[in-house]
Amino acid sequence: MNRARLPLSILLLGLAMPAWADGIRQVPFATLAPTLNAVIDFDGFDAGPEPGQEMSRLVVGAGAMVGGGLKGQSHKIVDMPTAAGGGQHYVPSENLRPSTPLALSSGHSFVIAAHRGFGSDAAFPVGPDGAAARSGRGEGVLSVIFDDDQDAVGFKLHADYNDPLGARPRPGLAVVVFHDRAGAIIDRHSIRLHHGVMPLAFQTDKTGIAAITISNIDPGGIAIDDIMFRRAALTG
Fold first, then answer.
1. Which of 9, 35, 119, 171 satisfies CB 3.0 to 4.6 Å to 193 for a cystine?
2. Is this prediction's pTM over 0.85?
3. pLDDT grade for 210, boundaries at 50, 70 and 90
4. Backbone φ and ψ of 230, nearest 5°
């Protein structure tokens, strides 16, 4: 793995330009969520508290697959500065375009475990320190491949617990990258994190989101829950 001591905002400067000129816009989660009829909530596994249950992939009925990255993408190890809490994260490297047909990577994983902030089970993408270490849970990449192209997706992200005394490092960044069915980058959003649960939603005027990849450089890592999308109605 390559190593870098650059903030995620600098790493993003070298990434490919989005394929859609009009891109994808961030919208209020509370407005969009009622229009989406499918949700991945990571419950029902009896995973228990951390370290929970490590998984390489999760297939959600006929709707989506969740994994630790997209096949064909390479991951870079980024060292956090000591002042920002230290530790290491996986982020997608400059080779962001996955291979096709879209598939999940077999080399990375995520953990499902009870999460106090969500009050339910959630997914923790696994970073370089591994699933068994607290410093490894939440520092990786989570990817979702949808069976049907989407025009809107949403999810909830938790960066860290509330810090009324201001003793912990400032929350970092998360990056959401959107891919079409050919693997091209439709758009990407760099999001400044804050303590607690962050509901996030995204929408475009044309259907074409085939996959999303979520990565972060945050001192405490992230957990993800309630990934929402549209599932086509069954016919016949």
1. 171
2. yes
3. very high
4. -105, 130
